Amino acid sequence: MKVESSTIQNKFLRVQTLNYGASLFEVYHKKKKINLILNLGSKLNYRYKHPSVGSTCGRYAGRISNAKFKIGNKKFNLNGNEGKNILHGGKVGFSILPWKKLNQTKDKIVYQLHSANDDQGFPGDLVVNCTYQLINKYLIIKYEYKSNKSTHVNLTNHSYWNLEKNKKNMIYSHELKLNSYKYLQINKNLIPTGRFKNVNKSIYDFSNFENIRKKLDYFKNKKLNVKFKGFDNTFVVKKNVRNYVGTLKNNNTNIQVDFFSNLPGVQLYSAQNLNYKKKLFPYQGICLETQYFPDAPNKKNFPSTLIKPNKRYTCFTKIKIN
């Protein structure tokens, strides 16, 4: 199937999307004349395995331990793709599949994907709609999904944000604030242990704006495995009326991006392992993936990702770009 791009826009923003992975290819700030996210360069690259750049991750964003879970008494073995574990839905996740464009207007586009029963080991025929919509300075991402069997679903957009004009400047001059006082403790395989840790006075404290470079220097100065040379952590979003998650800003370009979502967590990934065909490099972007918690199917104390048969579910993320 061909890679097809589509464009939605208003007077503030122009957003280019691709059918493969229902991906964001460009989020263009018209006043500043800057594209705010990374992409793979050639659109043809989206047909093949890549680090989920701008794409929709599913069926299950994040990791599931030992690539298996139980629903009732039935055990499901998944298509592991990261050692014993499964990441972002398996070897053939949603981010490299062609989605069908259902409809489009000037400021809204809807993609749909059918994922058959036993796709990557997951039960149920699942139908997912991904909607991108522009309303004034907001980019709204909405997922609607339904399955004919009980199954686990966790969807997120995996954009790498970089608010610099020159993307080779990395993310060092960015500042980040998160509406979170707790994060999930993880083991050496980045799987949550089930314990919640307080961010207070730790490297994980983003309750006020923090410079990303200063935070990353902490990891670089330690003798750590490369995958720990930065953040790949789930932060628990503190419940609030506005669904406020956090803010990323850059003082060089005076661009600020505010995130809002009805999901319980946000995965902060500082792209320490990003490496793509000499086009993309470590720390060149930062991901703020609004989602349910990794390994929730195997952690009873986490918000459940189990969906019931033939019931429609919805989640959203609103991104305000100033």
What report would you give on this structure?
The protein has about 325 residues and is mainly β. It has one domain (about 5-320): Beta-galactosidase, Chain A, domain 5, CATH 2.70.98. It is about 5% helix and about 40% strand. It has 1 helix and 26 strands. It has one helix spanning about 210-220; strands at about 5-10, 15-20, 25-30, 35, 55, 65, 70, 75, 85, 100-105, 110-115, 125-135, 140-145, 150, 155, 175-180, 180-185, 190-200, 210, 230-235, 245-250, 255-260, 265-270, 285-290, 305, 315-320. The strands form 7 sheets. The chain has a 9-stranded antiparallel beta sheet with strand order 10-11-12-13-26-22-21-16-19. A hairpin with a 3-residue loop joins strand 10 and strand 11 (about 110-115). The protein is globular and about 55 Å long.
In a few lines, what is going on in this structure?
The chain has one helix at 212-220, and strands at 5-9, 13-18, 23-29, 34-35, 56-57, 63-64, 68-71, 74-77, 86-87, 100-104, 108-115, 126-135, 138-147, 151-152, 156-157, 174-178, 180-186, 192-198, 210-211, 232-237, 244-250, 255-261, 265-269, 287-291, 306-307, 313-321. By secondary structure, it is an all-beta fold.
